[in-house]
Amino acid sequence: MNPLRTALSRTLSLSVRGVRRLTGRTPRMILTYHKVGHGPGRVQPEILEQQIRQAQAAGYEFVPVSRMSEWVKYGTNLPRRAVSLTFDDGLADTARVAGPILRRYGVAATVFPVLSFLGGPRRYASEKAQAYLLAHDDDPRTVPYDFMTWDELDQWVEGGGEVGGHTLTHPFLGSADEATGLAEIKACRRQLAARYGSPPRVFCYPYGDDSGQAGTWVRQAGFEAAVTSHHGIVRRDSNLHHLRRVPGAVTAGREFADLLAGVFLARQRLRKAFGRP
Ligand SMILES: [Zn+2]
Question: Which sequence spans correspond to the domains of the chain?
Fold first, then answer.
C-alpha cells in the first residue's frame, strides 16, 4: 500500500472509531466463518481464540443469531455490544477445532449444516457450484470436504450452540424451481425439529443466494429469520429474512477491532464510491 493510502486508511479507522466512542453506538454484527484450520481461506484456531478474547475484553457479548433476530423483530433486550458468530456448512473442523474453543469461552455460536453432507467427505457436486467456488473461494471446494457427524452436531447443541437450516444439498435457491426449493428448505427444518424437539429458527441461504423466491419460501417454511452473504450490519430496520453479515476471518488485533467498529464496511463503501476494486 502506498503512503497516501496508508494514511487515508488510518484516518478512516480513527474517525470511525472516534464517532463510535462519541455516540456510544456500536454496530450489531453477524460474522461469517467457514473453514477453521491452517491454510488458505481458513481462520486459524489461534486467531479465532484471540478474536474471542479480544472481543470479550472489549465488552462484547456473543449471542446466537436468533437473539439478534428477536431484537430486530421485537426490540427485545440485546447487549449494547452484541456480535454473532456463524459457521456455514457444518464442516468437521467447525466441530473439532472451533467447537472446543467456543465452549471454553462460553460462546453460543450458530452453525448452518448441509444435512445430507453430515458424517463424511462430500463434494459440492454441480458444475455451477464448482464454477462459483473457483471464482469465490481462496481454497476452492473442488475436492471432497470432511463434514461433522450428527453426534458432533448433538454436542454442539448440548454445549449451548444454535443450529440453523441450510438445506439438504446446498442448492442455488434463486434459480431453483418452487417444488425443489421449498422441499429443500422444509425438509431440513423437519429433520432438525425431529432431532432436537423444536424447529430451527434461523436459516442461511446456500452460496448466500437469496434471490428470486428464496426469501418467500424461507418465510413460508416457518423460519423467523435468514442470513445472506451480503455485507452489512444488523439494524432495527433490517429485513429479517435477508440479514447481512460480515466475513470474520481476518487477523486479531487492530484489524478485528476495526471490523467490529464498522471500519471494514466504511472502507468497502468508500472503495465502491470511488470505483476501486
Ligand atoms: Zn453454505
Answer: 3-270
207 C-alpha to center of ligand 1: Å? 5
Torsion of CA 192, 195, 196, 197, to 10 degrees: 100
Q: Could you tell me which of 262, 252, 229, 215 has the C-alpha nearest to residue 32? A: 229
pLDDT class for 237, splitting at 50, 70, 90?
Answer: very high
28-46: per-residue pLDDT in tens? 999 999 999 887 778 999 9
CA 172 to ligand 1 centroid distance, Å: 10
CA of 219 to the centre of ligand 1 (A): 19
User: How close are the terminal C-alpha atoms of the chain, in Å?
Assistant: 14
Taking the CA of residue 208 as centre, how many other CA atoms within 13 Å lie in the half-sphere pointing to its CB? 17
pLDDT 10s digits, 85-107: 999 999 999 999 999 999 999 99
What distance in angstroms lies between residue 169's CA and the mean position of ligand 1's atoms?
Answer: 9
CATH class of 3-270: alpha beta
- Distance (Å, whole) CA 211 – CA 205: 9
The structure's pTM equals: 0.89
